[in-house]
């Protein structure tokens, strides 16, 4: 505790650590060790951050886009230099295994470079005029202050997706990271600061969503809200932002399913399902939480899934041999425990897992939950309809392809769906029929790549996309310019 790190806000190019201010703790979920204390922001902090962003925007918007892109190239280099530090801190603070943390840092590096390339694109149009001696063109222009509100499960990559896009487009930023990963956010902000961006272009404020997030959604000088998180919170932000006619981009929850037809390669399917279900301890918006399988191969598939699940090593994510780390916080552990009980009460049968794990004595306070497979789940059960966000997989029986697609599409969510089949007929029909923003053929539900539009249908989002150039649709305004000569 003597070396406890205290963290303040980053506003207008400087760190501010007010005295006598209420703080919250950053806690290692694998050991319950307190890692740091972070200032809870108040309305004055938010106003100051937005004011700094608004002031800096006036000059930043006039910097040529290729020059703005140069900062992203430099950021990629600086992240690479501190790759080990970032990965270790991510595992310490939110519990994912170290290989995943390294993978996330590498994604940030790749995305910085990808979005830097957009500094030479962001194309407009020239259009034939209907009058003589006239030229018409359309151009993209920055919007203003962008509020980025990000979750704890991918503390760096989801922030980079939003902030790099906003920056290269010419916007300024107020970033409100999740409290569970405040130290990761501080380190990432320090790395951004080392790139010598103009003061106020990026500002980081810590605190609760009810205080900071709500104020950003209603602040008159914030032009855009970009948010990744729960559907419940997303709806609230949309209501607040909509009243003020703000743009808002929402990437929300999912109840993602893997369909397995009778002709599928069951070994391939089982491996893809287990990877999709238990990576990041199931704490991904694209995690597979349902398997919809034709009855004739259900038992054989279940046997394969259970066998692979039981081989997974669970423990502290810093151990390179561990496959599944801890859950991120006590709230998530309680949610997982509650839904497993609900599934049993509804008639589900646990094939493996279904309980909290007590590890070695020094880890007894860790938030570990055994990867769980539940069968005999009916399509209307809550475990088949509601997002758990944990290492819990529900298996549902389908009679045929049409029945499987109907079960998949009954969800209020529509983020990611997958089908395993050796039939081109059914593969192509699934690409058309599945109501999801992402569709995978013979692959799990969580394997997206940079440069392709990412986002969901229905209550998984509000139609906006990120991770690709489509993100500029919310980060820029179109202007049409008529020139008579």
What does this structure look like?
- It is a single chain.
- By secondary structure, the chain is of the alpha/beta class.
- It has 2 domains: 5-252 and 461-484, Aldehyde Dehydrogenase, Chain A, domain 1, CATH 3.40.605.10; 256-449, Aldehyde Dehydrogenase, Chain A, domain 2.
- Helix 2 runs antiparallel to helix 4 (98-117).
- It contains 15 helices and 24 strands.
- The model has no long low-confidence stretch (mean pLDDT 96).
Main beta sheet strand tally, sense and closure: 7 strands, mixed
What's the CATH topology name of the largest domain?
Aldehyde Dehydrogenase, Chain A, domain 1
Low-pLDDT sequence parts = none
Structural class: alpha/beta
Number of strands: 24
Mean of the pLDDT scores?
96
Q: How many separate structural domains? A: 2
CATH superfamily heading of the largest domain: Aldehyde Dehydrogenase, Chain A, domain 1
Strand fraction equals: 15-25%
Helical amount: 25-40%
Question: Secondary-structure map with pairings?
Answer:
Layout: E1 5-7, E2 9-11, E3 14-16, E4 23-27, E5 34-39, H1 43-60, H2 65-81, H3 83-94, H4 98-117, E6 125-127, E7 134-142, E8 145-149, H5 157-169, E9 172-176, H6 182-193, E10 202-204, H7 209-218, E11 224-228, H8 231-243, E12 247-251, E13 256-260, H9 266-278, E14 288-294, H10 295-310, H11 330-345, E15 349-352, E16 356-357, E17 368-369, E18 372-377, H12 382-385, E19 392-398, H13 401-409, E20 413-414, E21 416-420, H14 424-433, E22 438-441, E23 457-458, H15 472-475, E24 476-484
Helix pairs in contact: 2-4, 2-5, 3-4, 3-6, 4-5, 7-8, 9-10
């Amino acid at each position: 505790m003597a070396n406890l790190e205290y963290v303040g806000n980053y506003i207008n190019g400087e760190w501010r650590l007010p005295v006598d201010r209420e703080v919250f703790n950053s806690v290692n979920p694998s050991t319950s060790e307190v890692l740091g204390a972070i200032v809870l922001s108040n309305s004055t902090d938010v106003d100051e951050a937005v004011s700094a962003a608004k002031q800096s925007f006036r000059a930043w918007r006039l910097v040529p886009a290729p020059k703005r892109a140069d900062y992203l190239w430099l950021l990629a280099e600086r992240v690479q230099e501190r790759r080990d530090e970032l990965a270790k801190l991510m595992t310490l603070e939110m519990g994912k295994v170290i290989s995943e943390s390294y993978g996330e840092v590498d994604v940030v590096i790749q995305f910085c470079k990808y979005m830097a390339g957009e500094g030479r694109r962001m194309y407009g149009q020239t259009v034939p005029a209907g009058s003589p001696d006239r030229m018409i063109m359309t151009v993209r222009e920055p919007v203003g202050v962008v509020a980025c509100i990000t979750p704890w499960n991918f503390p760096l990559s989801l922030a980079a997706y939003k902030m790099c896009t906003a920056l290269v487009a010419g916007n300024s930023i107020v970033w409100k990271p999740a409290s569970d990963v405040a130290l990761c956010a501080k380190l990432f902000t320090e790395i951004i600061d080392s790139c010598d961006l103009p003061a106020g272009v990026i500002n980081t404020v810590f605190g609760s969503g009810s205080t900071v997030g709500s104020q950003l959604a209603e602040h008159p000088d914030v032009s855009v809200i970009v948010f990744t998180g729960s559907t419940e919170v997303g709806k609230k932000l949309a209501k607040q932002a909509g009243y003020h006619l703000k743009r808002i981009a929402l990437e929300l929850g999912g109840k993602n399913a893997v369909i397995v037809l009778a002709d599928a390669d069951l070994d391939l399917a089982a491996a893809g399902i287990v990877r999709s279900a238990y990576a990041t301890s199931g704490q991904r918006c694209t995690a597979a939480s349902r398997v919809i399988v034709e009855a004739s191969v259900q038992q054989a598939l279940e046997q394969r899934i259970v066998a692979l699940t039981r081989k997974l090593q669970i423990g502290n994510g810093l151990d390179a041999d561990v496959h599944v780390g801890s859950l991120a916080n006590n709230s998530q552990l309680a949610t997982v425990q509650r839904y497993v009980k609900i599934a049993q009460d509804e008639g589900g049968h646990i094939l493996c897992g279904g309980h909290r794990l007590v590890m070695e004595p020094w880890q007894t306070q860790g938030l570990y939950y055994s990867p769980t497979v539940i069968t005999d789940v009916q399509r209307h059960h809550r475990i088949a309809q509601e997002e758990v966000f944990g290492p819990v997989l529900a298996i549902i029986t389908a009679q045929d392809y049409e029945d499987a697609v109907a079960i998949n599409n009954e969800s209020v969510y529509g983020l990611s769906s997958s089908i395993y089949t050796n039939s081109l007929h059914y593969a192509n029909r699934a690409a058309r029929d599945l109501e999801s923003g992402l569709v995978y053929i013979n692959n799990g539900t969580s394997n997206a790549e940079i440069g392709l539009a990412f986002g969901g249908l229905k209550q998984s989002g509000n139609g906006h996309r990120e991770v690709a150039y489509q993100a500029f649709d919310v980060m820029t305004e179109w202007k049409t310019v008529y020139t008579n000569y």
